[in-house]
Design goal:
The protein is an alpha+beta fold. It has a domain of 191 residues. Helix content is 20%, strand content 24%. Helix 3 runs antiparallel to helix 4. The longest helix is centred in the last third of the chain and has 20 residues. The protein is elongated and about 150 Å long.
């Protein structure tokens, strides 16, 4: 087999080798950066997101509106009347509504003022629950009892006085939170001060006749049969007076000349009231002897007519007359 001679490198071949060596230059090594370590794990928090802290200021204290709504809801489950009354209450008012004050320019018989501080309470210690209260010579002034040391000698016929007055409430339109309405074991009672006229004196009690104004309207609008049971009241020295009744008016005089009786004042002849002389009585005014005698005569006249409508005993049996 013939030998084949080796070929020598030519310049073109050398240039090709140099070009290949330049194309095959190694890429410089660049180290890969290491990963950052993960953040350390912490215990979970209960603070919640930021928006929640701005919405609820304090979870332990309910907002005022929510508190009021909750109270009303709970009250409605107990008594609908109570819930209706609480809707009118202001939780933040600091106490129950106060009764209106009597007018300062006149004496309103249906809203008499309380008597000022007097000496009837002085000189006696308030007894305890173990004290004997069999005598009326002990004055009491506490949360459950108010009793003075006055006697029958401190009063005169014809005087005009103010006393605490309590009657069963017959007005269904009053709200349960009315300041003069109280719930007792015998039902709702309406309380206020009323002006009375002392008609007769007994050993320990006064027989009095009540005075009214009928909310400033007087008794002129009542039926004729009812107007016979009232007599008008006129202030002493009054220049103008309209008499809505059928009897001569009773002339009165207040101890405070700046506060006369209201022009619509009247006396009910058929509504006698007994007053204990130890009650918390205030003195308003008086009437002269002639007016007192006329008032007593009118009262006796109505008593006589009432006796005629009593029982007529016929044949040993009682028969009611019309």
């Amino acid at each position: 087999m013939p030998c084949v001679p080796l070929k020598k490198n030519t310049p073109s071949t050398a240039s090709n080798v140099s070009n290949n060596s330049q194309a095959r230059k190694p890429v410089p090594y660049v180290p890969t950066p290491s990963r950052a370590p993960p953040p350390p794990r912490t215990a979970p928090t209960t603070a919640g997101p930021a928006w929640r802290s701005k919405t609820v200021a304090n979870k332990s204290v309910a907002p005022n509106a929510l508190m009021r709504q909750t109270v009303k809801t709970q009250a409605s489950r107990i008594d609908p009347t109570m819930a209706s009354a609480m809707r009118q209450l202001n939780i933040n008012n600091g106490g129950p509504p106060q009764p209106p004050s009597p007018p300062k320019d006149c004496f309103d018989p249906s809203m008499a003022p309380a008597p000022p501080d007097e000496t009837a309470w002085q000189g006696s210690a308030t007894p305890t629950i173990d004290s004997k209260l069999s005598t009326y010579e002990i004055a009491v002034f506490n949360k459950v009892c108010r009793r003075t040391t006055r006697t029958i000698a401190d009063f005169k016929a014809g005087q005009i006085i103010s006393v605490p007055y309590h009657v069963p409430n017959l007005n269904p339109s009053l709200k349960a939170n009315h300041p003069r309405l109280a719930l007792t074991c015998e039902g709702p009672v309406f309380s206020k001060r009323r002006i009375l006229c002392v008609l007769y004196k007994f050993h320990q009690d006064l027989l009095c006749l009540s005075m009214f104004t009928f909310e400033g309207k007087g008794f002129g609008g009542k039926p004729e049969e009812l107007r016979k049971e009232f007599v008008a009241v006129v202030n002493k020295g009054a220049e103008k007076f309209h008499n809505p009744g059928i009897y001569q008016p009773i002339e009165v005089e207040t101890y405070d000349p700046a506060r006369p009786m209201k022009e619509t004042s009247c006396i009910k002849l058929t509504g006698p009231v007994t007053v204990n002389v130890s009650e918390h009585v205030g003195f308003v005014g008086r009437m002269d002897q002639l007016s007192w005698a006329r008032l007593a005569a009118l009262f006796e006249q109505r008593q006589k007519l009432a006796r005629q409508k009593g029982f007529n005993f016929v044949g040993g049996k009682a028969k009611a007359m019309a």
